[in-house]
Design brief:
The complex is a heterodimer of chains A (159) and B (599). With 159 residues, chain A is an alpha+beta fold. Chain A folds into 2 domains: 60 residues; 77 residues, 3-Layer(aba) Sandwich (Glutaredoxin). Chain A has 7 helices and 4 strands; from the N terminus they run ααααβααβββα. A 4-stranded mixed sheet of chain A has the order 2-1-3-4, with helices on one face. In chain A, helix 1 runs antiparallel to helix 2. The radius of gyration of chain A is 18 Å and the shape is elongated. With 599 residues, chain B is of the alpha/beta class. Chain B has 5 domains: 86 residues, 3-Layer(aba) Sandwich (Glutaredoxin), CATH 3.40.30.10; 211 residues, NADH-ubiquinone oxidoreductase 51kDa subunit (Rossmann fold), CATH 3.40.50.11540; 84 residues, Ubiquitin-like (UB roll) (Roll); 90 residues, NADH-ubiquinone oxidoreductase 51kDa subunit, iron-sulphur binding domain (de novo design (two linked rop proteins), Up-down Bundle), CATH 1.20.1440; 55 residues, Alpha-Beta Plaits. Chain B has 24 helices and 17 strands. In chain B, the strands form 5 sheets. A 5-stranded mixed sheet of chain B has the order 10-9-13-11-12, with helices on both faces. Chain B has a 4-stranded mixed sheet with strand order 2-1-3-4, with helices on one face. In chain B, strands 7-6-5-8 form a 4-stranded parallel sheet, sandwiched between helices. The longest helix of chain B has 18 residues. Chain B is globular. The chains are: A alpha+beta (159), B alpha/beta (599). Chains A and B meet through helix 2, helix 4 and helix 5 of A and helix 2, strand 9, strand 13 and helix 17 of B.
Chain lengths: 159, 599
């Protein structure tokens, strides 16, 4: 079992410092959540409660905002989060096959993280690199013109 | 500190002086797609060689997108006093060769396809200047329009000029920009806002990203001009968090503009103040709708509200707000510099100017293009786009993304403008253009778009929340082979109800992909529900793999099959057990003798 997902105090301090540095807190909830996800990697209830207390916003409202936007996540992502673009250009160029290949190779469904915490699979709606369709991102790296038989090689880069 | 026209002119002069020197200029396109293709390696290679050899005869510049996605990485080489040449599909070997040629003062002809039908206004600096260098922007006429407006025009004159130009909103709606500014100017308030909508949520569109990555200063300048015209001193750019490079370049541009006094207090020594900040989106298509966008900017769920009140009356924090899209702002500096009439003479009578399109899908020259309004679809797809990949048959082109519709061969001679596309049952949208060929199933495409709107519907109004879900279910039934003829009528009725009853633009346009494919590809729908066949062999529940007499019994298919559905002795014809087949297509890909038929 993994037990490395205990949230560190220093992360909370970092987040508090960021909130304190804002000129004005009014209307900055999404900005703060971006920062929080950047620090913690995801937005569990503990972080939501913390932000709520700090900014004086009901947790229900924060939860509403997080679940509204696809960029925010309440489950931890893998060390190398994989996103397969399912925008139109990628879709007509066969991104569904690429997605299936990743799912099969890793034995994961969309939104799941592997047991060793290494990989997670998600779909995204266009990174705007439609000229390179189909596109896959792993962490910050973008792979273009991906073919189904290249999936294994991409995964090997991170093993 | 840049205080007036003299300072601007001085920068332009210095730039020209620098160019006269005996220097070769190499520009490497460094946009997101170029970097994906390896442009950073090419740039680093040039940089390393130039630094190692201490070669000061070559000037290396990283630029934004040249629009040639089909040939990335691309570079542009200009020898002193010569015309520029553009080279595509660069790798280090090719770069090495080019550098060698440059040293002997020779280059070859451009080796990528460039259409002469393009006309660049918004993209004029993209791929041409270094977006991270403010002096390059100024050297190419940047901030001259802002200077002209602040020093010689009254706010109302600016609005009149934009009105006269006939510029219409490029985000999709096509509402006259000048009129929008007029509304915001008319409403009196202690605080007003200028907002730039850079939440390019339409999948398959990347115009705004390219403009922001390639020429961020033009957008800042245009927002300041708008601020002066409507009486606002604050601007906000609402940008997708999925565009990290565009964000980085915008942040740099804002910082530089502040340092040089082109944003901030007393710009050009006048009493006009304007500051710009960024706000990040978080992935919600509905935020392209202006009222939803404003709520998101306030840190709330991005749900739309009923208009009126329009943002021009009560927008960001209930103050008068003008919201325009990136490309709309991109036109403003040129209109001010060259005059409204110049702009009005480009394009068609009711849609003046140019439009940027992101060509993608099954088209040969995938890329970013800018053409005058009135160019036909045929010119865009075949002359500029180079036709369909692999000489397949053109089937349809989807314009306007999930809100638009599919157009077919019979619409190819349509001159593109706002009204013509609507008349044909599609819409301009933000400018994504996805080309499809004979291998694409139009029912599956309609299902794909509905899948998108189901996920992106904010859930506030019932027709959109439940209606799109039901539409999706009917389409799923059809592609699963469980549909009947009645479903087609149901699709149409439900689509019309959703269109009429939804609250915002997302719901009002969500059924468009269904309606336009129903109209243009009715037979394909009928084949799905009546014959339970998918002519494009996309819908897996409707296809069958069979082995023909071409089979020589090599066993490759049987080995590839994950469910052991293929049987047969070596060197004898094999056969498929249909009830075991999961239709994964592994056998089809494994067969080297074209012996497997997909029907």
């Amino acid at each position: 079992m993994r037990c490395n997902n205990r949230l560190k105090d220093e992360y909370f301090t970092k987040l508090d410092n960021f909130i304190d540095s804002l000129e004005e807190e009014k209307g900055e909830l999404i900005t703060v959540l971006h920062k929080a996800q950047n620090i913690f990697g995801y937005l569990p209830l503990e972080v939501q409660t913390h932000v709520g207390e700090k900014m004086n916003i009901p947790v229900s409202e924060i939860y509403g905002v997080i679940t509204f936007y696809s960029f925010f996540t309440m489950t931890p992502k893998g060390e190398h989060p994989i996103s397969i673009c399912m925008g139109t250009a990628c879709y007509v160029n066969g991104s569904e096959n690429i997605l299936n290949e990743f799912k099969r190779e890793l034995g994961l469904k969309i939104g799941e993280t592997s047991n060793d915490g290494k990989f997670s699979i998600d779909i995204l709606r266009c990174v705007g690199a439609c000229g390179m369709a189909p596109v896959v991102t792993v962490g910050k790296k973008i792979y273009g013109r991906v073919k189904a038989d290249e999936v294994v090689n991409i995964l090997k880069e991170y093993n | 500190m840049i205080n007036g026209i003299h300072d601007l002119n001085k920068i332009v002069e210095e730039k020209h002086l620098a160019e006269k020197e005996n220097q070769t200029i190499i520009k490497v396109s460094m946009s997101t797609c170029a970097i994906t293709a390896g442009a950073d390696t090419i740039f680093d290679y040039f940089k390393e060689v130039i630094e190692r050899e201490e070669n000061d005869t070559i000037k290396l510049i990283s630029t934004g997108c040249m629009g040639l996605c089909h040939s990335e990485p691309t570079i542009e080489v200009t020898l002193p006093g010569k015309k520029p040449s553009i080279f595509g599909n660069l790798n280090v070997t090719k770069a090495e060769k080019i550098l060698k040629d440059v040293k002997y003062n020779k280059t070859h002809e451009t080796d990528v396809f460039m259409s002469d039908k393009l006309q660049k206004i918004v993209l004029k600096n993209c791929g041409f200047i270094d977006p991270e260098n403010i002096f390059e922007a100024i050297g190419n006429n940047g901030y001259f329009a802002l200077n002209k407006v602040l020093t010689s025009m009254k706010p109302q004159e600016v609005i009149d000029e934009i009105k006269l130009s006939g510029l219409r909103g490029r985000g999709g709606g096509g509402f006259p920009t000048g009129l929008k500014w007029q509304f915001a100017a008319k409403n009196k308030a202690d605080q007003k806002y200028v907002v730039c909508n850079a939440d390019e949520g339409d999948p398959g569109a990347f115009m705004d990203r390219s403009v922001l990555e390639g020429d961020p200063h033009a957008i800042l300048e245009a927002m300041a001009i708008c601020g002066y015209a409507i009486g606002a001193d604050q601007g906000v750019i609402y940008i997708r968090a999925e565009y990290p490079l565009a964000i980085k370049r915008l942040e740099k541009a804002i910082m530089d503009a502040n340092i040089h006094g082109l944003l901030g207090k007393n710009i050009f020594g006048t009493d006009f103040n304007f500051k710009i900040r960024l706000k990040y989106g978080a992935g919600a298509f509905v935020c392209g709708e202006e009222t939803a966008l404003l709520h998101s900017m306030e840190g709330k769920r991005g749900e739309p509200t009923l208009k009126p009140p329009f943002p021009a009356e009560a927008g960001y924090w209930e103050k008068p707000t003008n919201v325009n899209n990136v490309e709309t702002y991109g036109n403003i500096p040129s209109i001010i510099n060259k005059g409204a009439l110049w702009f009005k003479n480009i394009g068609t009578e009711k849609s003046s100017g140019t439009k940027v399109f992101a060509l993608a899908g099954k088209i040969r020259n995938v890329g970013l293009i800018e053409v005058p309004m009135g160019t036909t679809l045929e010119e865009v797809i075949f002359d500029i786009g180079g036709g369909i990949v692999g000489n397949k048959e053109f089937k349809a082109v989807q314009t306007g993304g999930p809100s638009g519709g599919c157009l077919t061969e019979k619409d190819l001679d349509t001159p593109i403008d706002f009204d013509n596309l609507i008349a044909k049952g599609s819409m301009m949208g933000s400018g994504g253009m996805i080309v499809m060929d004979e291998d694409d199933c139009m029912v599956a495409i309609a299902k794909f778009y509905l899948g998108f709107t189901v996920e992106e519907s904010c859930g506030k109004c019932t027709p959109c929340r439940i209606g799109t879900k039901r539409l999706y279910e009917i389409l799923e039934r059809i592609t699963d082979g469980k549909g009947c003829l009645k479903d087609l009528k149901l699709l149409k009725d439900l689509s019309n109800t959703i269109k009429r009853a939804s609250l915002c633009g997302l719901g009002k346009t969500a059924p468009n992909p269904v309606l336009s494919t129903l109209r243009n590809f009715h037979d394909e729908y009928v084949t799905h529900v009546k014959d339970k066949k998918c002519p494009a062999t996309v819908c897996i529940d409707l296809i069958q793999f069979t082995i023909t007499d071409k089979c020589i019994g090599c066993t490759a298919c049987a080995k590839a099959c994950p469910t052991e559905a293929i049987m047969g002795r070596a060197k004898e014809k094999h056969f498929v057990y249909q009830d075991r087949c999961i239709k994964c297509g592994a056998c089809y890909n494994a067969c080297k003798f074209n012996a497997i038929e997909k029907r």
